[in-house]
Each structure stands twice: as C-alpha cells, then as structure tokens.
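Q: I'm writing a short explainer about Cytochrome c oxidase copper chaperone for a general audience and would like to include a description of its predicted shape. Could you first generate the structure from this sequence?
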Amino acid sequence: MGGLPAQNSSSVISLNVHKDQSPGSVGPGPDSKPRKKICCACPETKKLRDECVVEHGEAACGKWIEAHRKCLRAEGFNV
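A: Of course. Here's the predicted structure. Afterward I'll give you a sentence or two in plain language.
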C-alpha cells in the first residue's frame, strides 16, 4: 500500500454566518435584503451617470451621480 501512513486528510472550512443570514448574502442583520455586488446594482442609473461624466465631466453631472447613489442606498449599500 504505498508505504505512507494512513491519515485523515479531510479539510474543514468554517464560515462565520449568522443564523438569520445565508452564506451568499452580503451585509449584516436579518432584515437586510439579499443584494447584488455593487458593480451590478442599478444598471440604469449607472449608465446615465457614466455617459454624462464622459460627455460633460463630473462637475456637470451631480444630478445623475446623486440619482445613482440614491438607487444604491435603496438596494442596501452604504454610499
């Protein structure tokens, strides 16, 4: 049998997950919504914000920047 001693080679990985929170969710607390990654949240406002910044510069796009932040906050992000 190969000459190696038999050992228990199983690995255990533990995750700290609150009992009210699934492993795939992001954010603390039982009442927080399951969320996407911040890069994937609010694609409509992100697109408008990005197009405005490219065409007119950040200083002229405060309205769209704030609209995107508001959307992200509604999704549960702290921005």
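A: For your explainer, you could say: Residues 9-30 have pLDDT under 50 and may be disordered.
Q: Perfect, that's easy to follow.
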